[in-house]
Write a structure and sequence with these properties.
about 475 residues, alpha+beta, 24 strands, endopeptidase fold (from Nostoc punctiforme), 3 domains, SH3 type barrels, about 20% helix
């Protein structure tokens, strides 16, 4: 059963600001590097092309890390052994009220310390009192039938049933502390509770439990909801995002965004000469999407993806070449804490890259880095700098490197330096005079690993907590 952490712990451990931190401990600085004009240490233009890194691998680029059967076994082990994951199909037919209240209060607890609005003003106690009242915990019945639903659009998962953006410091408006994650069209959920104002639902999904806007979920039968996710044939999105074609007849499936790794049923038996909402199907893919009817119930309707959309009939093979290619499809995207800004954060980035190859990982860095179902090398802080350097030298394409609150994905090595792609707010390194330089980046970037500094005297590699290898 998923352990849903208190809000103040989530802030410290879960999504992570994906900033390389500035601790006081010291072990010895990395050497200052000559800086290019753009100011990002040890990064050249040629290194910003996926083909460059794939080409360096030679024949190893196509090496299959795991086949479909091995991936299926690993995914099953993840659900079985990792407490951050949940098999919603295994939930009982009725949910005890005590358990539902426990899920909600574990997440929706008042924050410790001041919080601020977008205008920089401190939020008053009355604001948090209203949030707590809207939880409607007194309305949770002693027992309730387990209800299932499908998400009909990309939608935010929130700490509280409220869309107010809340921040730790005045002016620091990139990291909304009430933003937890996001769900995508076709994601299956259990609907556990509704807010007092009726505008929000508390839902349980495979990787996260939080509040979502009511109009983003359509409630259906258990068999329909769980059957949708397993239907074949299907298409898997392999681009960063694709969109359905414009649809003047069904606006709910018009220009609908589908993110990397989203899987949708393909209507392969659709008559080849039958229009889809007025458009001929020959030049696209006829898929089936969930929509929410006026009474909130689930309906499945046809929609069109353009023939040019980057999709595949199956998840991509798990190879170094595909890991690099998929990661680079997000290069330059704005950093989005908790999937805000219609983007993703560091852990969301790596999970969606791997999802396009059929591999499931936990949502948060704190869970990814310690999952008992993944091949993990742990660091306890007793290692010398030289021992850590030796482990870093063994890194391979696709390995995930964790420091507190952040994850980086390895793409290769050049001139004895390890290079990673990651979604970060910024990095630190030593300038020509040995001073610490903080470089804001706010996006998916390529950087070296060894020159990065967590503090003036602390190389980032001395902050590594674990390395996870999807093998």
């Amino acid at each position: 059963m998923t352990s849903i952490r208190p809000f103040h712990l989530l802030l410290a451990l879960a999504l992570g600001a994906c900033v390389l931190p500035l601790p006081a401990a010291a072990r010895g600085p990395a050497a200052a590097a000559a800086l290019p004009a753009h100011g990002v240490v040890a990064v050249e233009e040629r290194q910003l092309e996926p083909g460059y890194w794939i080409g360096r691998l030679g024949d190893a680029a196509g090496r299959l890390y795991l086949d479909d059967a091995a991936i299926a076994r690993q995914n099953a082990a993840l659900v079985e052994r990792d407490d951050s994951m949940r098999d919603i199909a295994a939930l009982p037919r009725a949910l005890p009220g005590s358990e539902v209240r426990g899920w909600i209060t574990a997440l929706s607890s008042p924050p410790e310390g001041e919080r601020y609005g977008a205008d920089g003003a401190a939020l008053p106690a009355a604001f948090f009192d209203a949030l707590e009242a809207n939880l409607a915990l007194d309305g949770v019945p002693r027992s309730q039938p387990t209800r299932y639903g499908l998400v009909v659009r990309r939608a935010a998962l929130r700490t509280f049933p409220d869309d107010t953006r809340v921040f730790s410091r005045p002016g620091d408006t990139d990291i909304d502390r009430f933003q937890e994650s996001a769900l995508f069209p076709g994601d299956a959920v259990v609907v556990a509770h509704a807010s007092r104002d009726g505008a929000w639902l508390f839902v349980v999904s495979a990787r996260y439990s939080a509040w979502i806007e009511r109009d983003a979920v359509a409630v259906g039968t258990r068999d329909t909801v769980l059957g949708y996710r397993d239907r074949s044939p299907a298409l898997v999105v392999t681009a960063a995002t694709v969109r359905t074609v414009f649809n003047p007849e069904r606006p709910e499936v018009s220009e609908l965004q589908l993110d990397m790794g989203v899987r949708v049923p393909l209507l392969a038996d659709w008559p080849p000469d039958r229009a889809v909402h007025g458009q001929h199907p020959l030049f696209g893919h006829v898929i089936e999407l969930p929509v929410r009817t006026a009474d909130g119930s689930l309906a499945l309707v046809p929609a069109l993806l353009p023939r040019t959309a980057e999709v595949a009939a199956e998840p991509l093979p798990l190879t170094p070449a595909n890991i690099i290619a998929q990661g680079f499809k997000f290069l330059g995207e704005r950093y989005g804490w908790g999937h805000s800004y219609n983007a993703r954060d560091c852990s969301g980035f790596v999970s969606e890259v791997y999802r396009s190859m059929g591999v499931q990982v936990p949502r948060n860095t704190s869970d990814q880095s310690v999952s008992p179902a993944l091949d993990r090398t742990a660091f306890d802080g007793s290692e010398s700098h030289e021992e850590r350097l030796a482990e870093v030298a063994k890194l391979q394409v696709g390995d995930l490197v964790y420091i507190p609150g952040h994850v980086m994905m390895v793409i290769g090595r050049e001139h004895g330096t390890t290079y990673t792609i990651h979604d970060t707010t910024g990095i630190g390194y030593l300038g020509a005079g040995g001073e610490l330089v903080r470089m804001p980046l706010n996006g998916v970037v390529v950087t070296p690993l060894e020159p990065l500094m967590a503090g003036a005297d602390t190389p980032t590699i001395d902050r590594i907590t674990s390395i996870v290898r999807i093998r």
